[in-house]
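Hey team,

Filing this mostly as a record. A colleague (T.K.) asked me to run one chain through the structure pipeline before their review meeting, and I want the input and output archived in the tracker in case anyone asks later how it was produced. No errors, nothing strange. Just documentation.

Input sequence:
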Amino acid sequence: MKQWIQIALCLLVMPLASTAQTQEAVLHCISVNASGSATLTWTAPTDTCSGFDRYDVYGAAAQTGPYSLLAQINDPVQLSYTDGGANAQNGSRFYYVQTVSACGSFLSDTLSSMYLKLSNTGGSIAGLSWNEVRVPLPVTAVLPYRIYREYPPGNWMLVGTSSSPSFKDTISICNAQVNYRVELSDNSGCISVSSVDGDVFKDVSSPSIRQLDSVSVDTLTGNPILGWIGSTEKDAAGYLIYQFKDGYWQPVDTIWSADSTFYMLNDTTSGSTRFRIAAFDSCFNVSPFGDEHRTMYLSATYDPCARTALLEWNPYISWKDSVSRYDLYVMADGGAASFLASVTGTQYLDTGLTAYSNYCYLVRAVSGTGTKTSTSNKACVTANSPLQPMFGYVTTASVNGSQVDVRFYVDTAASVQAYRVLRSDSPGGTYTTVATLPVTTSPLMTYSDADVDVASERYAYKLEVIDSCGMSALTSSNYGYPILCSVVSDYNFTNMVSWTAYEDWPSGVVTYGIYRSDAFNVIPVLVATVAGGTYSYADDVSALYTGDGAFCYTIVAQPAAGYPWPVADSSMSNTVCAYQLPRLFIPNAFTPNNDQVNDVFSPVSIFIDPLEYSFIALNRWGFVVYETDDPKAGWDGTYKGHDQPVGVYVYYVRIKTVDGRAFEKRGTFNLIR
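Output structure:
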């Protein structure tokens, strides 16, 4: 079946081979149906790299999203989709189609349904406006817009066209409902249809303005409650409730009784909500708006450090006799409301709260004459205290070059404001703050202390935790006291390395590793490991006599098992260097008889790294029989291939090292056969 579909698609695409290939579906039309659903129509991509997967249809109530996946369509020839939950009669809905194929994933343009708004000023002009499906319009859209009017019910008639998203229709109807819709054709063959909007048009005067008495908030549901004085006009039919939303006044409900004087809106929007009321008569003529009234929005901000609740609310406005006072009430731990205080401002600080108790507050405005009141929403706080840290450890204090790296393990679940790094000259000394570290999400923290002399001094480090109230909540239970290392060389080819103990891992030190760098190992290598509690090591370097005599050491401590942090952390000492004295040995005789024993005469350098080298051998008449600048070469007792006679010879050696030192030596030696 899949192969048949691919063949069919290829046959469909072949006549379009000369046109541009597209890898995404092209969304052309959105039609709003009578139910409020929205039907999308698109054309298929012309290039799916022989591997169509699906169409993903996304929708949102706002252009900026968030967008939700509405459908996944696996049939490549299904080129439409109806969003049954669009509710597009109540606002624009935004859509795009994602094509998933062997080529990849490709998005169509985002189109919106046309949301039609009708303006009826009470005369004979119907003002229509709507949003475009996209700005600018798709290139396949065919202007002008066509405007249809429904009157009488069920009879839709084209009444005009417009090249812009607005239109005015002049009608002559005394008292009837008139509905409108807008259509926009597309070159692909589909049509975008707007939502339907309409109104009753009649030619009678509007009723008189009605005023809200007060607006409050129901403390149980959080819904706004509106009250007003009812209309006494004979043709009064009801009221329209308006709410200021999204930057303009929107009707949110209709009261179909002129005798009604009370209304509760199902809306728990956070914040102060603005309302107005308008009356309408039996011919549905609507009065101008009454004055704006706003609910009081009460907020309660708890200060866990001071254990207080700051109550703030917006002033109540629009009473002709103003506000005489605000009465505050409190409910502790679910109990009954009790009077707290009366104030004339819009702020109050409730002090002395009991830790871990729950407090709910409300404020009631009282008019100047005392005949009207307005109640705010209920605002609640829990008198929590800052969550204190359970631990804080110094995992290591380690020398890194000329600085000390100190690492910490902290409790990230605590309410913490900052961390202070403390330093002292000794574990039992006076600690001072050397740095303040910000809070991070990681439990592992590092501070590098550069203001130190690691070659000759030791420093003890601790960590102080500052809670969210700025108070010291905890000081680390251990400290970090890095290793101080020293080394002395002797004439017997031995370097004596010694060091201080690392302190203060809770589990102690299990081993110390001795690392050495020299002429043969630029990067330090481990030469020995000793048990914790051992603080010296004699390093025999006689086998390294061909080097320059410089040896540098670093000690690395490892913690014993049982440390309370998740990952083991070592500690490095400072690096110290020793220098073996350079020496030059000259043999007094050699036997070049090819027995592989003492056949070559050559000076032997100990712990010398030569930059310049010269060795000359002379016979007893002062004639040069051998000369070389290669420290590894020697004389085999011949001159130009001829054995030289036994006897006494003279040598001369001159060496200049890489560090600028010079060595010279003269003497005699015997050639023996």
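Quick notes for T.K.: The chain is about 0% helix and 50% strand. The first strand starts at residue 26 and ends at 32.
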